[in-house]
Amino acid sequence: MKRFTLPQRLTASEQSTSPKRFLSPQRSRSSLPATRIGRIRTWVAHAFAVEASDAPFDDSERKLADRLAGFVVRRRMTTPALMALESSRPLGFIGSQVLVFLAPFASLLFSTEEYERLTRLVEKRRGVDLVIDAIVARENERANG
C-alpha cells in the first residue's frame, strides 16, 4: 500500500530555481492564496449589506402603509393578509421583487409612484413590520368603534 506524503515547502533558494508558470515576479508561492482570498473578500465585502434595521420611516411611507391597511380591513382580509405578511417576513427583498413583477396588476389600487414607494418600503428590513402594525391598528379601530 502506497502512502501519500505532502510535499515539503520550498526554501528560498529552491523557490528561486523552481518554475513559476502562474506566479508574477513579485509574488511568492506562499502569498498567492492569501492574496486571492484577500481580493475575493474585498470584492464581496458589501454584497449582502442591508440598511440598518432602526432606520426611521418618513411620513409618506407611514401614509402608504395606512392606506394599504385601510384597503385590507375594508375588505375583511385582515387574517389572510397578516398570515401572508408574517410568513413572508424573512423574504422581504424577494417579496419586493415579486411586487415589481406584479406591477401591472397593482395599478388598480395604487398609482405608479405609490407602488414604487411600496416596493421600496417592503425592501426595508422593518417595512413589513410597519405594514403589519398598520393593519392591526386599523382592525382594532374597526372592532372597537
Please supply descriptive tags for the structure shown above.
145 residues; mainly alpha; 61% helix; elongated
Question: What does this 3D model show about the protein?
Answer:
With 145 residues, this protein is mostly helical. Helix content is 61%, strand content 0%. It contains eight helices and no strands. The protein has helices at 12-17, 32-43, 59-74, 78-87, 92-101, 103-106, 112-123, 127-144. Helix 4 runs antiparallel to helix 8 and helix 5 packs antiparallel against helix 7 (112-123).
Topology readout:
Layout: H1 12-17, H2 32-43, H3 59-74, H4 78-87, H5 92-101, H6 103-106, H7 112-123, H8 127-144
Helix pairs in contact: 3-8, 4-8, 5-7
Q: Would you tell me the structural class of the helices and strands?
A: mainly alpha
Number of strands: 0
Percent helix among the residues?
55-70%
SSE topology string: HHHHHHHH
Shape: elongated
Q: Stretches where pLDDT falls below 50 for ≥5 residues?
A: 18-24, 27-33
Radius of gyration: 28 Å
Write a brief structural summary.
The protein has 145 residues and is mainly α. The protein has helices at 12-17, 32-43, 59-74, 78-87, 92-101, 103-106, 112-123, 127-144.
